[in-house]
Design goal:
Elements (H helix, E strand, L loop, with lengths): L2 E2 L2 E6 L7 H12 L5 E7 L5 H7 L3 E4 L11 H25 L3 E4 L2 H10 L7 E5 L7 H12 L3 E5 L2 H8 L8 E3 L16 H8 L6 E6 L8 H11 L6 E6 L8 H13 L6 E5 L4 H7 L2 E4 L8 H9 L3 E4 L15 E3 L4 H12 L2 H15 L5 H22 L10 E2 L3
Parallel strand pairs: 2-3, 2-5, 3-4, 5-6, 6-7, 7-8, 9-10, 9-12, 10-11, 12-13, 13-14
Antiparallel strand pairs: 1-15
Helix pairs in contact: 3-4, 7-10, 8-9, 8-12, 11-13
Bound molecules: alpha-D-glucopyranose (GLC).
């Protein structure tokens, strides 16, 4: 009798906190075809990720947090090594016990641990790169590691993130760009919620509400946005700014404090609204007239697609993967990162021109959103999974045959 064996994928996440990369992981688990795949996720217990994993119906196993840092400080090097080695130890045991067909590590740190733990097992390992690899000698060591690790491949969330990882190394064949996908059914242009959020903030319909949505951290350039707002607030007395999001990693708490202090010292407090994290992001986007993503570094920028799908115009910085999504004056606007006068001028201009805003929104919805749907992401990911499993099986004909192939023994 022939039965069907599913592809068992072990997902590794280095933290239990949910930020952008984890949202992609959760969506991956949600759309993964359970007839063909059996996902098991390993991540630390601390944080809100575990409950989200359970909600997708995937299995979960604990792994300690992987706290590796790009630093030469002896104490940090030791801490990073200890953290990596303890995670490798636990993961190696699980690889032996579970015999996954594939390991999908959801960050560079998790990837390093996974590739080390899978050494000698022939299990393919994917490093899903959601971050820009910093300029650091250790980055070079990581590239060399990926080059020699035969079972290791990369997914980058944008071409720019892939280029940055590859650098001058002959790694291009191992780096697959798969743009993130957004569940467009959760972010629709039906703007019935527009009033809810504005009413809550006490903002009238005719006032111009700018929002910034995402993790609160220096990389998101929120201080620059506040500065730009300061530069124009007296010329645009009906403009408001909502900062929506929370500090995810503790070391950024000072940054949030600095934002509050800047708003106070620049006397713009009454028009800057710190809203904390919102579960209903689409209500925020529907309620806003413009979404600004003023990042200094941004490998992708999920919120841009979410805003476009909600019919909210976007203004962003020309950095990282953003120009692969936003084309200036077509489906949104771009300014140079760190150029606060340019950002300020654009804010003022856009607050005064309703028709240009509407045109970009139409273009974004018609041409851009479909390119970044969850469906297209899922198709490309499944193709890569199949390719990697097939490669492995071609290399070892005597090993257990993979899913998607009927095996007489199971
Ligand atoms: C990280 C990146 C962000 C990206 C997200 C999902 O948080 O900083 O740009 O959108 O991962 O890939």
């Amino acid at each position: 009798m022939s039965t069907f064996r599913k592809i068992r994928i072990l997902y590794i996440n280095h933290t239990g906190q949910v930020s952008g990369a984890e949202r992609v992981l959760i969506d991956t688990l949600r759309v993964l075809d359970r007839k063909h795949y059996e996902p098991i996720v390993m991540c630390p217990l601390q944080g809100n990720l575990v409950e989200e994993i359970f909600a997708t119906g995937a299995e979960w196993l604990p792994i300690p947090s992987i706290r590796a840092r790009f630093s030469w400080r002896p104490d940090r090097v030791l801490r990073s090594l200890a953290s990596i080695l303890s995670a490798v130890w636990i993961l190696r045991k699980q690889i032996r016990a579970l015999g996954p067909d594939l390991i999908h590590a959801n960050s560079v740190r998790a990837g390093l641990v996974a590739s080390l733990a899978a050494t000698g097992t022939r299990t393919p390992v994917i490093w899903h790169v959601h971050d820009t690899l910093p300029q650091h000698p250790l980055s070079t060591a990581l590239r060399m590691f990926v080059l020699i690790a035969r079972n290791t491949q990369l997914i980058a969330v944008s071409r720019q993130t892939a280029r940055c990882f590859v650098g001058h190394f002959p790694l291009a064949a191992k780096a697959h760009t798969i743009h993130n996908g957004v569940d467009l059914s959760r972010f629709t242009a039906e703007r019935s919620e527009r009033r809810t959020y504005r009413d809550e903030l006490g903002i009238a319909q005719e006032e111009f509400l700018v929002c910034a949505v995402g993790q609160i951290c220096a990389r998101k350039g929120l201080l620059e946005l506040l500065d730009a707002f300061r530069q124009v607030h007296s010329q645009a007395p009906r403009m408001h700014l909502a900062i929506v999001g929370r500090v995810v990693f503790r070391h950024e708490e000072d940054y949030l404090q600095a934002l509050h202090e800047a708003a106070k010292s620049w006397a713009i407090e009454d028009r800057v609204h710190f809203c904390g994290e919102r579960r209903n992001v689409s209500a925020v986007l529907h309620g806003s007239d413009l979404l600004v993503l003023s990042s200094r570094d941004e490998p992708f920028g999920l919120v841009l697609i979410e805003a476009m799908a909600c019919g909210t115009p976007v203004l962003a910085t020309r950095v990282g993967g953003i120009p692969e999504i936003v084309v200036d004056a077509e489906n949104g606007w771009l300014v140079e990162p760190g150029n606060t006068p340019a950002l300020a001028a654009k804010l003022l201009e856009l607050s005064r021109c309703g028709s240009a805003l509407r045109q970009t929104v139409e273009q974004a919805q018609r041409a851009t959103c479909p390119k970044f749907s969850l469906e297209q992401y899922k198709t490309k990911l499944a193709a890569l999974y199949t390719e990697l499993c097939n490669q492995r099986d071609r290399g070892s004909p005597q090993e257990i045959k993979p899913a998607l192939v009927r095996s007489p023994n199971h």
